């Protein structure tokens, strides 16, 4: 898969570890930065990375900040992006199988890299249960909310 990654200073170290895992697994990585641990502002990196997912330039996004919710707040404001914060593999499994998320957000200050890499692996390898109507109904309802309230990107 083509995967957009981004972070802020608080997520930088974990982003780099995730990149190593993704490369090992044969994924194509688009790194939207930052490229060092200098203090920075999360939206400057997560917003362009979210756009890449929304525009289909990346299949998925994995964003890391201190606690994860900051990345999800930004990503979920973009039409076509469905982001979940996951702190354990069970949540990662359901974020895919029930909710068909295309962005995973992690907190570098919350979880160690061992759990984080397991979360990434589970999230990337779990399929959406698109044959189970209750899940598609719920996902469709979320999509309808974004149709109503979010601005569609032009040319997508
Ligand atoms: O290092 P500072 O700037 O204090 O805190 C940054 C982190 O704290 C939370 O807001 C976010 O998770 C962000 O990544």
UniProtKB/TrEMBL annotation:
Gene3D superfamilies: Sugar-phosphate isomerase, RpiB/LacA/LacB. InterPro entries: RpiB (IPR004785), RpiB_LacA_LacB (IPR003500), RpiB_LacA_LacB_sf (IPR036569). GO terms for molecular function: ribose-5-phosphate isomerase activity. The keyword Isomerase applies. Keywords: Isomerase. GO terms for biological process: D-allose catabolic process; pentose-phosphate shunt, non-oxidative branch. Transmembrane segments: none annotated. Belongs to the LacAB/RpiB family. This is Ribose 5-phosphate isomerase B. It comes from Anaerobium acetethylicum. The lineage of its organism: Bacteria, Bacillati, Bacillota, Clostridia, Lachnospirales.
């Amino acid at each position: 898969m083509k995967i957009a990654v981004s972070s802020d200073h608080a997520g930088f170290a974990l982003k780099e570890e995730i990149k190593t895992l993704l490369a090992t697994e044969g994924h194509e990585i688009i790194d939207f930065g930052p490229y060092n641990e200098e203090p920075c502002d999360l939206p400057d990196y997560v917003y362009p990375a979210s756009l890449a997912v929304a525009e289909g330039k990346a299949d998925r996004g994995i964003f890391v900040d201190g606690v994860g919710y900051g990345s999800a707040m930004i990503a979920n404001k973009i039409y076509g992006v469905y982001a979940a914060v996951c702190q354990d593999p069970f949540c990662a499994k359901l974020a895919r199988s029930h909710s068909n998320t295309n962005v995973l957000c992690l907190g570098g200050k919350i979880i160690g890299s061992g759990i984080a890499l397991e979360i990434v692996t589970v999230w990337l390898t779990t399929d959406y249960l698109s044959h189970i109507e209750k899940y598609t109904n719920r996902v469709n309802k979320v999509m309808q909310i974004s149709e109503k309230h979010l601005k569609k990107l032009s040319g997508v």
